[in-house]
Each structure stands twice: as C-alpha cells, then as structure tokens.
Design goal:
Blueprint: H1 7-25, E1 33-35, E2 42-48, E3 69-75, E4 77-85, H2 88-93, H3 95-121, H4 137-149, E5 158-162, H5 164-171, H6 174-177, H7 179-182, E6 195-197, E7 200-204, E8 210-211, E9 214-221, E10 225-240, E11 245-258, E12 264-270
Helix pairs in contact: 1-3
Length: about 270
Amino acid sequence: MSTSIAQAFVKQFEREVHEAYQRMGSKLRNTVRTKNNVQGASTVFQKVGKGTASTKARHGAVPVMNLDHTPVECTLYDFYAGDWVDRLDELKTNIDERQIIANAGAYALGRKTDELIIAELDKSTNYAGSASDGLTKGKVLEAFELLGEADVPDDGQRYAVVGWKQWSQLLGIEEFANTQYVGPDELPWRGTQAKRWLGTLWMPHSGLKAAGGVRLCHWFHKTAVGHASGADVKTDISWHGDRAAHFVNNMMSQGAALIDAAGVVTLRCLES
C-alpha cells in the first residue's frame, strides 16, 4: 500500500465532504444571520435598536433617530470529526465507500453547527403557554401574538423548529394540514422536512433539548441569532505507519450567538 495520497484525491475527498455538509449537514445554518471567513477567535454582530421619527421646524435640522447599536460578541470554537481508514487504495477506487465516509464526517459537523445554534435559542425566556401540555393551536397562536407584540418583522424570514413529536401534533391541527386552509402547495404530506404556515417556515429537528419530558421548540426571526464561520469544513488525510492506516480528519471553526432575545419565542412542549 502506498504511504502517500495523490493530491487530486485529497482535493476530491475534501470537495465531497464540503458538498455533503452543505447539502445535508446542517438544517439551521441558513435560518440565521451568517458571517463567513472570520479572522480571529471571535467576531461581533450588531444589534440595532428601534428608531423614532419626528417632525422638524421649517429650515430646521432633521432630527436624528439615535439608534442604539449594541455589539454582540460571538466566539468561535474548533471542532473535529475524524476516523481511521485502512486499505485506502481500495477506498480510492470504491466510490460508495468514499462517499459513506465523507457523508459521516459532514453529518457530524452539521449536527455540531445546529447544536451551536440551538444552544443560543435555548437562552430565550420568552415562553408561550405552559409546559404542561404539548404543541396545541392555542400555544401556537399565543407565540404568534408575542412575535407581533415584539414587532418581529413578518417578512418571510420567520422560522419555527420543533421536535418530531410536536411535528406529529401539528399534523393534527386542521389549519396546519388541511388544504382548505393552507392550499395544495403548502401541504406537509408532500415532505416531512419543512412547510410554510402563518408566514413561517416550520421544520422538525431531532436535536432540540428535552429536560424532564419537556421539549424546547423555538419560533424566531433570522436576525435574532448569528452564526459565524472562521473556517468551513476542511479535510486532512495523513498516513500513520504504526497503524498501517490513514487518518481522515474533518474540521471546522464556528460559533453562534443570540443577538436579539426579543426575536425568539420558545414553546415548551410536554412529551411524557
């Protein structure tokens, strides 16, 4: 077996991991503010307050809104997902096996990306309803009211992420699942990954936190959470003679931060 890998193979493997990560690794990265190619150990997202419009006297100075700019720091962390691979020569010629390893690394890093974002969403204390029942229509409408009262923009950039139990409960709500309410193009039965309802893209996720039988689901605006990437998914392949194997290491540097807590409403849903 060769003790070195052709550079072309390394580039191809890295490309496959990167594409797999973009395609199926993270479900939440595109639902939040994103900053790429960050230089350094942290970056800053700006939280901009509300402005006030005023009148002015004739020929007088235009009043200044005096917007409040609050910097929110986002720290980046390094994450790795590696595995040992024997008989790499066979791997290079077996496309299915190579893709399996590439997908496994992408999945692991994607779950970590979503874990970072969910950890920030969990900091929300804006609760809709109680934690003594599941995801009901009443709880959804209360959350809808909270978002409106907080002046969260209804501009097509609202997202709701729920557990699979709550997704099943949503299917029991006629307004969510009946074509007479949502139209034939928004039926959830065509796919189980996402659907639009109440001006929001709803999606199920298996990584939401559950404690004491209560699942934390979140309804938020894209600008409420930030995700920063210092280095997107990269792959390093090195030979270890003492193991007679190559080590395939996938790595990235990323972080997340809660920018505006008012833009997140949490729905506590009992599962037990």
